[in-house]
Amino acid sequence: MTATQGNPLGDVVWTRLLLELDNLPAGAPNKEAIDAVLPMLYEGYRNGYSEVRDVDNEALHQWVFPVAVARLGDGLSSERQQLLYIIQKYANE
Predict the structure, then answer these.
(1) pTM of this structure
(2) What's the sign of the alpha-carbon dihedral 6, 92, 50, 24?
(3) In 3-state terms, what secondary structure has residue 79?
(4) Is the dihedral of CA 19, 25, 28, 32 positive or negative?
């Protein structure tokens, strides 16, 4: 995503996807530990963000689909299956 201006909730969801998508290859050093920490890192980011800006969870939820589609457009094969799952899940809502 290359936008320089837009809804900040899109940035929050973008960060969430970056942290939650499994990009580390199997066998990467400390993969299990890193995978365990990443959701906590997002939760800390989200909590900190909420302290400085009101976040409407429904509005945040609505950003998942377009951000996942944009991320899919980046063409990272390691994320493709996960992003397609997210896109399909949110397209049916």
Answers:
(1) 0.81
(2) negative
(3) coil
(4) positive
CA distance 19 to 13: 10
In whole angstroms, give the CA distance from residue 52 to residue 93: 29
Farthest-apart Cα atoms in the chain, separation: 40
- Rama region for 27: left / alpha / beta (φ>0; ψ in -120 to 50; rest): left
Calpha distance 48→42 (Å, rounded): 10
Give pLDDT tens digits for 28-40.
899 889 888 998 9
How many residues are recorded in the chain?
Answer: 93
DSSP 13-28: HHHHHHHHS--SPTT-
One-letter identity of residue 53: R
